Amino acid sequence: MPKSEDEELRRIIEAALAEKDGAKGGGGKNQMVCPHCGKKTESLIIKRYRYKESGLDNVYLKNSAILHRCVCGQKYMEIPQIERLHDAIAYRLLNKKTIWRGQEFRFLRKWVSLTAEELGRVLGHVRRGTISRWENDKIPITPATHHQMLLLVLRLKEEAINERMSLEIAIKEILEKVAEKAKTPASITITPDTIRSLPFPALKGGR
Ligand SMILES: [Zn+2]
Q1: Rounded to whole angstroms, how far apart are CA atoms 94 and 83?
Q2: What distance in angstroms lies between residue 42's CA and the mean position of ligand 1's atoms?
Q3: DSSP class of residue 60?
Q4: ipTM > 0.90, yes or no
Q5: Interval between CA 18 and ligand 1 midpoint (Å)
């Protein structure tokens, strides 16, 4: 893990622990064996964890992330069911009725396992640099691009989806509405319930 990420993780852990009742005991079932010394860790469920590792600045995991602390001083952060978590985030983004921000566009591209180059090709010879500029908010994502990407993402996931996403029912409405940028991005909060009640099953393979 690069040093800056390590420091960021440490900061999050310290903040979570400093927060009054910010964490509660995870109980025995969440315990893990410390890979460093082999002792059993103390495990805490983080009440509210900002999931920056997703590349999104507005995603919060409620009672989902688990912090493991060992007497030897090692700390580990565990994000359970990460694939389903990403499905849940993608589902929220696909239902978003304002234009994606660059980071949201990037999340969806990665969700369907496309490189910027591959995406450029399937979008009709869009240069990789253009995609990078979209993803970094250097040039605006147009409603037309949003529509094209939305349809592409659904198509790429379609083969893997047995039960149709209820999302598709709303697609006409979304395509009609997505025309503007949100003033402030609404935060996305994912709880264990969000994942349990996702309207589509776990997807096998991105493509
Ligand atoms: Zn240890």
Answers
A1: 16
A2: 10
A3: E
A4: yes
A5: 21
